[in-house]
């Protein structure tokens, strides 16, 4: 049973990575939110499994917080923003999708190499997944760079936080409770502020295309 | 537990202030309440520093907070500049409101977030937990994002968006670094909250796994370096400084950058302990030199006065990073002194610049003319402030830059001419611009209210004093703090 659960963590990790790639290739904003939600579900399952295997009660709490925040609260907020702003499709990204996928593969290889020496030292049960977590972080980072609209950038930002959260769970069996609470609070406040912000951008420019936001440049 | 009371007050007062001002910040008395809370915070911060100077480091609330000479000095500086900036924001924001740029809800947002911003910086400085340090740094960004975009102009929205996204990405790197630190500590101390407490980590720093620490430090340096405004991750800084209200530019430049540098210093001390090859110091030296040189050359190309002084902040933060990267008692001392005088001078300059732009109705330097003739005290404030920041004796910046350059000459001779060249370029650029702004004829109408010039001259007076004479107790204090950074 334990061996099976151990393997299941690898399964969730692989799932997270696939979702990250799906996010890169997805141009429909609504689908991006769905992908973000499934990533949240995988994260919750992975956290619960690690919590059960290591019998650490604080990981159960953090799984509950993740469930509330990343599966319910943030996706609901994103849906409301999308409905009220009526944005459906992202425009053509700055680099076309096949090229981004290829760069993504390079990033994954890089992440695995970077994580290799650390994973060997880590004593946690989920250590082999550290490379995947780092790859997810880098992929979301790239998504933030290549997308031209505000909402996909925000989803990239949130997906990066998911990757970091998974790295914390995988490598260290979770950060101390007080730190995780603080991070969750920061993410929540950040999303609220971004929501306010998108309405301000919309009001000002009549569009959520952040290419409007390129006036401040060094000439 | 007498020492925990001032600590408790220092942290609680600005949070309470944020709450009260969220309710009453838009009223007639809002600015006064803001000043009152800032003053109370300043008073309790002084009490706290007095306790630390007299006695030993304080560990408060079950080791969750930790005050030693290094952060006590920054707490006092933060509370002082927080207080003087609240004094400055009184007439400044009043004029902005009469110009129609601020409305009642925006005033409430400004006052409440200002207090919370100060609270989060004090939290970041006093916490013993490196995870909480990260949380507080991120929270300090979040409180200021909506302030940068408070005027709702296209440019300010863009600046705030950049500020949020770039700092968010940067600080995410720092979180990964903190996680790696926890991973390394986990192997020595064991899991739980203790493994992120700085005092515990410092006690075992020689046993931490050097490979993990090296990677952790790179991520932490990149992450917190974004907030310090080091090149090449500085892009948010000039925009946020130029587009936000001037009191926010003053506290961003004078305080937030310092707090981020403080975070790097704490991490550097751990990394140096674990690695014996001096990688951490060399990384900081490299980031520092690149920032100084790039910022000095960008200074020349600026047309917006607040952007120009924002680039000057990048230059000076680079200089401090360089000094701390060199390490050793003298360079650390110089870095700490530079931190103090830069905060004081730069915020004084922003106060003067703020009123000058209000008078001219524009932030473009070409539109600002004849300040000395139209309002002599304001003009002199800007002239003296600029001369001070450019490192002219007898101001304190001269003393600290001189110390940094001499220690560079001893420890890293090739860096000295590079730094001197960059400082020369910066001097020529800023001096020429300021000269054009203060001399000549002015046709602009005077300001409707008396500008707040007391904070400007108080800050400049303190900088002058530090250039001529560092009081013995302060000297002692700096030396203790410099020893704590080590290296």
A few lines on this structure:
The complex is a heterodimer of chains A (219) and B (487). With 219 residues, chain A is an all-alpha fold. Chain A has helices spanning 2-25, 29-54, 57-85, 97-121, 130-146, 150-172, 177-205.
What would your notes on this structure say?
The complex is a heterodimer of chains A (219) and B (487). By secondary structure, chain A is an all-alpha fold. Chain A has one domain (2-212). Chain A has seven helices and no strands. Chain B is mostly helical. Chain B has a domain at 278-487. Helix content of chain B is 77%, strand content 1%. Chain B has 19 helices and two strands. Chain B has helices at 4-24, 30-54, 69-98, 104-126, 130-148, 154-188, 198-203, 210-228, 236-243, 246-274, 279-299, 305-326, 329-360, 371-374, 376-389, 396-411, 415-438, 454-468, 472-485, and strands at residues 58-60, 65-67. In chain B, helix 4 packs antiparallel against helix 5 (130-148), helix 11 (279-299) runs parallel beside helix 17 (415-438) and helix 13 packs across helix 19. The longest helix of chain B is centred in the middle third of the chain and has 35 residues, at 154-188. Chain B is globular and about 70 Å long. The model of chain B has no long low-confidence stretch (mean pLDDT 88). The chains are: A mainly alpha (219), B mainly alpha (487). Chains A and B meet through helix 4, helix 5, helix 6 and helix 7 of A and helix 5, helix 6, helix 8 and helix 9 of B.
Keyphrases for this structure?
heterodimer; A: mainly alpha; globular; B: 487 residues; mainly alpha; two-stranded antiparallel sheet; 1% strand
Write the layout of secondary structure elements.
The complex is a heterodimer of chains A (219) and B (487).
Chain A lengths: L1 H24 L3 H26 L2 H29 L11 H25 L8 H17 L3 H23 L4 H29 L14
Helix pairs in contact in A: 1-2, 1-5, 1-6, 2-3, 2-6, 3-7, 4-5, 5-6, 6-7
Chain B lengths: L3 H21 L5 H25 L3 E3 L4 E3 L1 H30 L5 H23 L3 H19 L5 H35 L9 H6 L6 H19 L7 H8 L2 H29 L4 H21 L5 H22 L2 H32 L10 H4 L1 H14 L6 H16 L3 H24 L15 H15 L3 H14 L2
Helix pairs in contact in B: 1-2, 1-4, 2-3, 2-4, 3-4, 3-10, 3-13, 3-19, 4-5, 4-10, 5-6, 5-10, 6-8, 6-9, 8-10, 8-11, 9-10, 9-12, 10-12, 10-13, 11-12, 11-17, 12-13, 12-16, 13-15, 13-16, 13-18, 13-19, 15-17, 15-18, 16-17, 16-18
